[in-house]
Structure to design on (1078 residues):
């Protein structure tokens, strides 16, 4: 992998697959994902659409159906941390005097906010999900003085996962729509909204299909395609037919590799592991090395386990919002893993290990994830009980200086050797 | 001469605050009473009181370290839950008959998981879903969550919580808040008869003993303080502490030893719990509790849309207590309070109020450094 | 008495209701097997329990992946609807070991199709109850253990595929039921009997099952028998019933239990199922 590609982990896959169709898919996907680069994000609001900024993903289908430009500030921060000058951005953010162990993606987002680099929004939507850090960012945005006059809306994502929680969140989404209509002067075009939901359902189904193909041993393509697919369909304004087309071709091409029992090029797959946290921005310095030197493939992380999504019930606006509430609370990466009890996180991990024939669970435990840092013993005990090798790391997924990729590699190598996998 | 020397009532309250299982708890238990532990300050004690239970706010008093809890948390985790959970693992909370944890911050929320996983001998455990936004929809949601909690408590403890009992409990707890407000009001004078560190002890005791006993003790103490001379130095800098789980009088003691006087606070064991009240009686008591928690007192920084209310509450205190400077205390790794202090620092500066912000562990490890910083801060605010 | 017994009764009642609505109901019976307690080891047990099946069952029986192009039938997709319910009891008269009931079309009748899918596994064993549901649920992650059958990664529901090859070999719901029974019984010595219900008749038929499944998931999550004990013949829960969408289900269960109490207390006593 080239140095440039290594630095651009957020927009390029960590491992090359075969030439031809995958190269073409790669180019097309990168072309679209480039919209997530900080500079592009900062320029986009100048396009004339009302600009809405949020602390976290809310519902891209809604903002797109209202023809709004939506920026997820956390994503901007995370993307900035993954850029070649990410470390400097983190350092500048630290100088601002935020709590010393706040997640660095959120710190970078705060830097963009306070520098001030972000254009003036027309409306602000904050949510307490998925974690304390993003919640804190929302409160920063909410009380950022230059934006004091900007209309604001606050979503309360409940920690429960019962029907009443989905209904509760759905009601808030309805209120959010009314708020956005008032704040931006744009009406929700119901027809367009439902059409976007249908497209979104199609994309979700394709991602779910791709997800299943990762069961094949050896894994046919870079598993990270699932994470890229998620970003293509959720972080880029949704409902784009060209994204659906990329996903369709991705699934078809991957199926061909499965039929040919073809694994990733240059990888002699021996170990399949779960990285049960956010994939690090320095993944390009770790995962390819693990794969090529040890045959250890990271099959899944939070964002590459993005399927299957709850199908949006497009019978009516109400039903769509209620099912969106469920999708948001249960299916959204990070929210799924960080908002619920430790048992939910563990059940997912154990099930994925079994379904995808994994050999080990790695708990990276990003230092900014206060939730994960509060239950390492429960996770370890559960894996031990299930007979699954378990490794706790303790790293910063946004800043390689905390635990350098070389050290992570050595730690993982020792672990795989000690449990007899390598 | 401090209250420890002059007031037996204060000595009793300070003893209660200085330990976990205290004589009032023992006496309650020996009479057949049950004790309900809880994290954090927004949990409505009224439901437990109405069920005939003794509410006991979880803290880490007496902890010397986190060796046992460190299996359950990493070093990145906030030290308040680590110390209090360590105490639990050592059996210091074995007297609890129940535990209710609220969905406040991520670390506290998972302390609920750890408590269950560790197999602690707490017969009843419950996770209360608290909204993180202030608004009418949230009141409705929270009311339903309180209804569930009430049902669970009723079932487990074979208690019947009627509306009448709930209103009686609300009135009792409102009385506690009113008496605490009176106590704080005594500190508005130039030379208060009670110090900041003494106030911390009085407030912490309030969440560790039967309310009726506590209210009686507070009445006695207020009567004593009404005629007592001020204990501080005239002209001392008047300070306020803002922050989270401030249940240890030692921080105030450091400030006061250096010549300042802590006249008020906006903390989870102190001033935050006694602001506002719920009564008078009107309609559905659970709805009243929900409105109080979500709309009237959204003082936890995990509640979105309510920072302006928190800021105003701090500024009101600054004005009412003639505060010269604010000490912002953040427990290391606390994202919500870290953000809150980041905002407050600029807001207080704008209001012309100096602020000293420092991050500390639950058991401050570097008292010397802290003392030096306090000295420097006092220099900037001293009249 | 087990708190889940009311849900077992409810499942039986639902099958009867569907039968009365003229739904196609088929009942298969697995061949008799010796008591599991006599079985020397899990693998032997598995071999005996799967004897005569047209497909292999057990670890490594399948690569765990069926491509779209190799799919004969898809079950329980998000569009078609899905529901999964696991019940466990120690009440002997409940759970008819080896019985597989199918409401709706069979595999062979649905080439190239997509069917709604309800799966109810009813387990019996000494001391089994709601406290065991979480652990038993893990046995049902059958990835790669049933040849020609793939359960997709859809937590909480069963979304699955039957391969063309398996269909050609005669894979049916009777096969699937026996395979599941074999995997559960060989995986947990505590399980003495397994009965299975599949519903493929329509999305609407899954609604009452899903309502029950939601309640059972809550019970499983609570995990403590005390919280969910049966008081007399009332099912009590820690929720605000008036606000709960599942109230009708609980009301139904209460009425079933009351009816049973009436029968039990009548001369001649215990009713047969």
């Amino acid at each position: 992998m080239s140095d440039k590609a290594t630095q651009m982990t957020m927009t390029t896959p960590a491992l090359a697959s075969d030439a031809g169709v995958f190269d073409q898919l790669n180019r097309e996907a990168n072309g679209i994902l480039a919209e997530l680069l900080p500079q592009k994000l900062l320029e986009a609001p100048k396009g004339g659409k009302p600009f809405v900024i949020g602390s976290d993903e809310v519902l891209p289908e809604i903002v797109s159906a209202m023809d709004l430009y939506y920026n997820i500030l956390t994503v901007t921060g995370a993307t900035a941390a993954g850029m070649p000058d990410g470390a400097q951005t983190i350092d500048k953010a630290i100088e601002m005097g935020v709590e010393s162990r706040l997640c660095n993606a959120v710190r970078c987002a705060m830097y963009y906010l306070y520098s001030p680099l972000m254009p003036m929004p027309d409306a602000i939507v904050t949510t307490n999900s998925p974690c304390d850090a993003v919640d804190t960012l929302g409160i920063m945005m909410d009380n950022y003085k230059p934006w004091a006059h900007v209309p604001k809306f606050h979503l309360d994502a409940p920690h429960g996962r019962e029907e009443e929680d989905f209904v509760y969140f759905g009601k808030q989404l309805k209120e959010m729509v009314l708020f956005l209509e008032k704040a931006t002067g744009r009406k929700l075009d119901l027809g367009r909204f439902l059409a976007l939901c249908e497209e979104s359902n199609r994309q979700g189904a394709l991602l779910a299909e791709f997800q299943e193909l990762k069961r094949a041993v050896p894994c046919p393509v870079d598993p990270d395609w699932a994470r890229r697919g998620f970003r293509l369909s959720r972080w880029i304004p949704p409902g784009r037919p060209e994204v659906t087309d990329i996903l369709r071709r991705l699934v078809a091409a991957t199926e061909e590799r499965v039929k040919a029992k073809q694994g990733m090029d240059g990888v002699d797959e021996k170990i399949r592991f779960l990285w049960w946290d956010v994939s690090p921005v320095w993944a390009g310095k770790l995962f390819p090395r693990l794969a090529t030197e040890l045959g250890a493939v990271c099959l899944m992380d939070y964002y590459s386990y993005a399927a299957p999504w709850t199908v949006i019930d497009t019978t009516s606006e109400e039903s769509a919002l209620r099912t969106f509430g469920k999708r948001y609370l249960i299916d959204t990466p990070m929210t799924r893993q960080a908002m619920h009890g430790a048992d939910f996180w563990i059940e997912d991990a154990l099930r994925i290990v079994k379904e995808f024939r994994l050999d080990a669970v790695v708990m990276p435990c990003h230092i900014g994830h206060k939730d994960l840092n509060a239950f390492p013993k429960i996770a370890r005990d559960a894996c031990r009980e299930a007979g699954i090798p378990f490794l706790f790391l303790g790293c910063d997924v946004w800043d390689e200086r905390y635990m350098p990729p070389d050290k992570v590699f050595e730690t993982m190598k020792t672990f795989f050797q000690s449990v007899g996998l390598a | 001469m401090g209250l420890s020397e002059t007031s037996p009532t204060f000595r009793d309250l300070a003893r209660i605050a200085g330990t976990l299982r205290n004589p009032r708890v023992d006496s309650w238990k020996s009479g057949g009473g049950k004790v309900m532990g809880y994290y954090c300050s927004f949990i409505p004690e009224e439901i437990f009181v109405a069920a005939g239970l003794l509410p006991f706010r979880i803290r880490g008093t007496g902890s010397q370290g986190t060796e046992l809890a460190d299996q359950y948390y990493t070093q990145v985790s906030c030290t308040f839950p680590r110390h209090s959970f360590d105490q639990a693992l050592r059996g210091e909370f074995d007297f609890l008959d129940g535990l209710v944890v609220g969905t406040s911050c991520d670390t506290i929320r998972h302390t609920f998981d750890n408590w269950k996983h560790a197999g602690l001998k707490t017969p009843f455990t419950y996770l209360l879903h608290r909204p993180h936004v202030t608004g009418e929809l949230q009141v409705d949601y929270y009311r339903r969550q309180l209804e569930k909690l009430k049902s669970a408590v009723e079932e487990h403890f074979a208690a019947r919580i009627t509306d009448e009992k709930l209103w009686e409990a609300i009135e009792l707890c409102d009385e506690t808040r009113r008496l605490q407000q009176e106590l704080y009001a005594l500190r508005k004078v130039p030379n208060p008869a009670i110090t900041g560190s003494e106030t911390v002890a009085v407030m912490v005791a309030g969440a560790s003993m039967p309310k009726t006993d506590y209210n009686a003790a507070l009445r006695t103490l207020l009567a004593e303080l009404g005629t007592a001379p001020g204990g501080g130095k005239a002209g001392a800098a008047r300070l306020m502490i803002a922050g989270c789980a401030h249940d240890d009088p030692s921080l105030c003691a450091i400030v006061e030893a250096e010549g300042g006087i802590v006249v008020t606070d906006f903390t989870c064991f102190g001033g935050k719990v006694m602001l506002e009240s719920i009564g008078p009686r009107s309609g559905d008591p659970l709805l009243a509790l929900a409105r109080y928690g979500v709309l009237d007192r959204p003082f936890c920084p995990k509640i979105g849309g309510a920072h302006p209310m928190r800021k105003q509450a701090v500024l009101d205190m600054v004005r009412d207590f003639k505060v010269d400077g604010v000490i912002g205390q953040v427990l290391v790794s606390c994202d919500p309070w870290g953000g809150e202090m980041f905002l407050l620092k600029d807001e207080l500066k704008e209001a012309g109020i100096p602020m000293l912000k420092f991050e500390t562990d639950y058991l401050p490890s570097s008292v010397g450094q802290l003392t030096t910083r306090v000295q420097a801060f006092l220099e900037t605010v001293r009249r | 008495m087990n708190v889940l017994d009311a849900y077992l009764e409810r499942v039986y009642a639902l099958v009867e209701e569907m039968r009365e609505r003229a739904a196609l109901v088929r009942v298969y019976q697995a061949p008799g097997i010796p008591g599991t307690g006599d079985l020397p080891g899990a693998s032997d047990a598995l071999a005996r329990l799967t004897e005569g099946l047209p497909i292999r069952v057990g670890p490594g029986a399948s690569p765990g992946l069926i491509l779209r192009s190799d799919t004969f039938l898809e079950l329980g997709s998000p569009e078609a609807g899905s529901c999964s319910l696991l019940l466990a009891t120690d009440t002997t008269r409940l759970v008819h070991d080896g019985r597989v009931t199918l409401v709706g079309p069979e595999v062979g009748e649905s080439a190239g199709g997509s069917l709604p899918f309800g799966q109810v596994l009813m387990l019996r064993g000494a001391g089994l109850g709601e406290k065991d549901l979480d652990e038993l649920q893990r046995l049902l992650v059958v990835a790669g253990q049933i040849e020609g059958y793939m359960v997709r990664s859809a937590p909480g529901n069963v979304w699955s595929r039957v391969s063309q090859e398996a269909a050609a070999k005669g894979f049916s719901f009777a096969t699937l039921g026996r395979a599941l029974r074999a995997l559960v019984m060989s995986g947990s010595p505590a399980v003495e009997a397994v009965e299975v219900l599949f519903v493929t008749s329509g999305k609407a038929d899954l609604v009452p099952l899903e309502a029950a499944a939601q309640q059972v998931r809550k019970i499983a999550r609570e995990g403590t028998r005390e919280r969910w004990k049966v008081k007399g013949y009332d099912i009590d829960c820690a929720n605000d019933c008036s606000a709960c969408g599942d109230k009708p289900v609980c009301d139904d269960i209460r009425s079933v239990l009351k009816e049973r109490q009436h029968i039990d207390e009548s001369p001649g006593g215990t009713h047969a199922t």
